[in-house]
Amino acid sequence: MVIDAHCDALLKLWEKKISFHSSEELQVNYVKWINSPVKVQCFAIFIPDDVPAESQFDAALEMITIFFEQVVDPYDDIKFISNRNDLLSLKENERGAILTLEGCHSIGNDINKLKTLIRLGVRAVGLTWNQANAVADGVGEPRGAGLSSFGEEVVELLNKENIWTDVSHLSYQGFFDVMRLAKFPMASHSNAKSIASHRRNLDDKQIEALIQRDGWMGITFVPYFLTDFEDANIQDVINHVDYFIDKGAINCLGFGSDFDGTDKFVDGLYDYLDYRSLLTNLQINELTEEQVKKISYQNFIDKFPRISK
Fold first, then answer.
1. What's the rounded Cα separation, in Å, for the pair 190 and 151?
2. Which of 119, 169, 194, 213 minimizes the number of CB atoms within 10 Å of its CB?
3. Collapsing DSSP states into helix, strand and coil, what is residue 93?
4. Structural domains of the chain, count
5. Does a structural domain hold residue 158?
């Protein structure tokens, strides 16, 4: 059983007008899902930066409509997950779908737009993508500023609503601003910078801060987040798992694949159907059954901030 904290299937469905059921253009589709060990999938709302600012919130609403009309509603065995009780009540044959937001650029500087997205089901909020927005600077903004006063208001709302504050893509200063303010911090899809030097990865100080704050970290399968070499394989994923565990993150670790969010792939880990191979290799790599359980799904369940409603 696996819970995956990040994929970009909604973006592909929105851009390409393809079918969620079985499109081969998707790493995450219905047919692959029900034939994989993935129990719960988080679906990110990500608005590309070439969408005009005045149209971005409408695009986010369109993706939410796609989420319900194409991912959840057509299938009796796919359930919308709003809280931890929903996770725990999934039946053996059922899968769960969670809405997340990747970057607050779609809300501009209007907190009511974020409140609307939360009411519609968003349960984790990434504050930025790589660029700056009204909340904070992203990791790609040279200025490197932290949270704005509006960003602090956003985090306060997420605390009040029992929603995860996601620091993946956030500037370094913004990261530590979140550690100071957020009740429920997470890095949905970020790896260890000591292994792969990409700017999106977490250094040891950040990993330690997330552990101290009882946060959650999702190892991602994007090759250039896994290694500084051209190609990546399953052992590279395991290297990050081992590194995080050595740093004391066994109770904070999980997976955030970023399936459908990259055009580069890990050898032997192309899509949902390859999760079985990853889990087998983790056990071969001398992780205990309890450790694999924690990383695969239990940590995510235990830390899911919203208990009910």
1. 21
2. 119
3. coil
4. 1
5. yes
| Tens digit of each residue's pLDDT (9 = 90 or more) over 235-289 | 999 999 999 999 999 999 999 999 999 999 999 999 999 999 999 999 887 899 9
Q: Is residue 178 part of a domain?
A: yes
**198-216 burial code (b ≥16 CB/10 A, e <16):** bebbbeeebbebbbebebb
- Say whether 131 sits in a helix, a strand or coil: coil
Q: Are 301 and 3 in contact (CB under 8 A)?
A: yes
Q: Which tokens in the block code for residue 233?
A: 């394989």
Global pTM value: 0.97
CATH code, 66 = 3.20.20.140
Burial class (CB in 10 A: 0-12, 13-18, 19+), 262: middle
Q: What is the pLDDT of residue 35?
A: 97
d(CA 18, CA 75): 17
For 260, what's the count of Cα atoms within 13 Å in the CB-facing half-sphere? 29
pLDDT digits (tens, 9 = 90+) for 20-70: 999 999 999 999 999 999 999 999 999 999 999 999 999 999 999 999 999
Structure tokens at 244: 């995080």
In degrees and rounded to multiples of 5, residue 101 shows phi and psi of -120, 125
Q: Look-up: residue for tokens 């070439």?
A: 50
In which domain, by residue range, is 55 found? Answer: 2-303
Q: What is the pLDDT of residue 309?
A: 84
Q: Tokens representing 253?
A: 């670790």
- What does the alpha-carbon distance between residue 5 and residue 109 come to, in Å, rounded to a whole number? 26
Closest CA to 234 of 201, 191, 277: 277
In a domain? residue 166: yes
Do the domain assignments include residue 206?
yes
Give the separation between CA 154 and CA 124, rounded to whole angstroms: 12
Alpha-carbon span 43 to 69, nearest angstrom: 14
